[in-house]
Design goal:
The protein has 437 residues and is of the alpha+beta class. The protein has 3 domains: 107 residues, Trigger factor ribosome-binding domain (Alpha-Beta Plaits, 2-Layer Sandwich), CATH 3.30.70; 97 residues, Chitinase A, domain 3; 159 residues, Orthogonal Bundle (Trigger factor, domain 2). It has 12 helices and 13 strands. The strands form 4 sheets. Strands 7, 8, 9, 10 and 11 form a 5-stranded antiparallel sheet that branches. Strands 1-2-4-3 form a 4-stranded antiparallel sheet. Strands 5-12 form a two-stranded antiparallel ribbon. Strand 3 and strand 4 form a beta hairpin. Helix 3 crosses helix 6 and helix 9 packs across helix 11. The longest helix is centred in the middle third of the chain and has 34 residues.
C-alpha cells in the first residue's frame, strides 16, 4: 500500500500511521502471559500469579511499550517504502476519529536535504605552504638547551637580569588589606620568561641579594584571579638568592642525551628538522583543508535539518560540560550552558558534513584500505615504537573509523584543490606556527 507523504515546509514531512487495535491487543496479551511466567508478587508462588493480577499491575506499562514498538515499526516501514532519508526522531501524536478497530497517528519529521554542489572550477582557494628555516632549528635547539639548563648562585653584588632564577619573599596588599595568593616566601621564578606579570618582573630586574623594594602593580581586567582583577596592589619584595643559568654546550653529549641515534650535532639538527617538518606538514594540511572545505560549502545549495543541528548542539554542550568537569569546575553538570552560543558552529558543522558526504558519494572519494594503512603508519611514525601504535589503532574499530574520517577529509581536500582556482601563498615558519611578534 502506497504511503502518503505530506510536505509541511522545506524539509518537514508528515505521514499518517494506522494500526489495527486487535494487533496491538494481541501483542499486549502475549507479553503479559510471558511476564506472568516469571512475575513475583507477595502471596503468590513464582509463576503462579493470576493473569488478572498481572494485568492490573503491569497492563498500562506493557500497553505503552507495545504501542511505542508498533508505532516505531510502522514508521520505519513507511519511511522505507516511501524511500525517505529521515533526519532525527519523528514527533508522533495520536489522531482523533480513527476508523473503528484502528488507531491512527501523525508522524512529523524532517528528511535530509538534496545537496546541489556547483562547479568547483568557480571556487577560489588560497593554498599555503612553508618550510622549516635554519633559524627555527636553532630556536628549537635553544629551547631544548633551556629545558636542560642548570643554575649556580651568583656573586653577592650581582644584579638580577633576564635569564636569572631569583628566590624572593613578597607580600601584597590592596587598600591596605592582604589578599589570597598575595604573599609567599622563598618563591622562585626566572626573569624574562613571563612567569610573572611584566610589572613584577620589571621591579625585580636589577635588584641585588638582600635588597627590598615596594612598588605598585595593576592587575589586568582579565586577570584569572577575579578577586584582584582590575585592582592595584602595593607589593613589597625582598631578593634572597640570584642564580645564573648555564646552558649545556651543543655537542655530542647533548645529542646523546636527547636520544639521537648517531650521537652527533649534525644528527641532532637533522632530527629537529624532521620533527619540525612533521609539525609543519600537519599545520599546512589543516589550514589547506579548512580553506578547501570553506570553498566547497560556498559552492553548495542545501537546506539544513533542524533535527541534525539540535543533535550537534547537544553533543557540543555535552563536550563543553565534560571539559569543565575535567578542569575541576564544581557542579559542571548543572552549570547553564546556552545552546545559542554554539548554534553558528553547529549549523556550519552540519552543513559541511552534508556537503562532504554528497561529494564523497558522487565522486567515489571513500577511504581505501591502503590509504587507511598509510595514514595509521604516518600517525605512528613520531613515536618511539611505531609498530605498537599501529597495533593500537587496528585493535579498535572506533580508532580506525576516526582514521578513515581523516583519510576521507584528505581525499575531499585533494579533490577540491584539484578542481578549484588555487592561488599559492608562502608563509614563513613563525607565521605558520603562530609565533609572530
Amino acid at each position: 500500500m502506497a504511503v502518503n507523504v505530506e510536505t509541511l515546509e522545506k524539509l518537514e514531512r508528515k505521514i499518517t500511521l494506522t494500526l489495527p487495535v486487535a494487533t496491538i491487543q494481541s501483542e499486549v496479551e502475549a507479553r503479559l502471559r510471558k511476564l506472568a511466567r516469571t512475575a513475583r508478587m507477595d502471596g503468590f508462588r513464582p509463576g503462579k500469579v493470576p493473569m488478572s493480577v498481572v494485568t492490573r499491575q503491569y497492563g498500562y506499562s506493557v500497553q505503552y511499550e507495545v504501542m511505542n514498538d508498533k508505532v516505531g515499526e510502522a514508521f520505519f516501514n513507511a519511511a522505507n517504502e516511501a524511500e525517505l532519508r529521515v533526519a532525527g526522531q519523528p514527533t508522533i501524536t495520536e489522531k482523533e476519529g480513527a476508523p473503528e478497530g484502528e488507531v491512527s497517528f501523525d508522524a512529523v519529521f524532517e528528511v535530509f536535504p538534496e545537496v546541489k554542489i556547483g562547479d568547483l572550477a568557480n571556487a577560489e582557494v588560497e593554498k599555503v605552504n612553508a618550510e622549516v628555516s635554519d633559524e627555527a632549528i636553532e630556536r628549537t635547539l635553544d629551547i631544548l638547551r633551556k629545558q636542560r639548563r642548570s643554575f649556580a648562585q651568583r656573586a653577592q653584588a650581582a644584579a638580577a637580569e633576564d635569564g636569572d632564577r631569583v628566590s624572593i619573599d613578597f607580600a601584597g596588599k590592596i587598600d591596605g588589606e592582604a589578599f589570597d595568593g598575595g604573599k609567599a616566601e622563598d618563591f622562585q621564578f626566572i626573569i624574562g620568561e613571563g612567569q610573572m606579570l611584566k610589572e613584577f618582573e620589571d621591579a625585580v630586574r636589577g635588584m641585588k641579594v638582600g635588597e627590598s623594594k615596594t612598588f605598585p602593580l595593576a592587575f589586568p581586567e582579565d586577570y584569572h584571579g577575579k578577586d584582584v582583577a582590575g585592582k592595584t596592589a602595593d607589593f613589597m619584595v625582598t631578593v634572597k638568592k640570584i642564580e645564573a643559568a648555564h646552558l649545556p654546550e651543543v655537542n655530542e653529549q647533548l645529542a646523546k642525551s636527547l636520544g639521537v641515534a648517531e650521537g652527533t650535532v649534525e644528527g641532532l639538527r637533522a632530527d629537529i628538522r624532521k620533527n619540525l617538518g612533521r609539525e609543519v606538514k600537519f599545520r599546512l594540511a589543516s589550514r589547506n583543508k579548512q580553506a578547501a572545505m570553506a570553498a566547497l560549502v560556498a559552492q553548495a545549495e542545501l537546506d539544513i535539518p533542524k533535527a541534525a543541528v539540535q543533535a550537534e548542539l547537544q553533543r557540543m554542550v555535552e563536550n563543553a560540560r565534560a571539559d569543565l568537569k575535567a578542569r575541576g569546575f564544581k557542579d559542571a553538570d548543572k552549570l547553564p550552558i546556552p545552546e545559542d552560543n554554539f548554534r553558528p558552529q553547529a549549523e556550519q558543522r552540519v552543513r559541511t558534513g552534508l556537503v562532504v558526504a554528497e561529494l564523497v558519494k558522487t565522486r567515489n572519494l571513500q577511504a581505501k584500505p591502503e590509504q587507511i594503512k598509510a595514514q595509521v603508519e604516518e600517525l605512528a611514525a613520531s613515536y618511539e615504537k611505531p609498530e605498537e601504535v599501529v597495533r593500537y589503532y587496528y585493535a579498535d574499530n572506533q580508532r580506525l573509523a576516526d582514521v578513515e574520517a581523516m583519510v576521507i577529509e584528505n581525499n575531499v581536500t585533494e579533490h577540491v584543490l584539484g578542481a578549484a582556482k588555487v592561488t599559492e601563498k608562502t608563509l614563513d615558519f613563525d607565521e605558520l606556527m603562530g609565533q609572530q611578534g
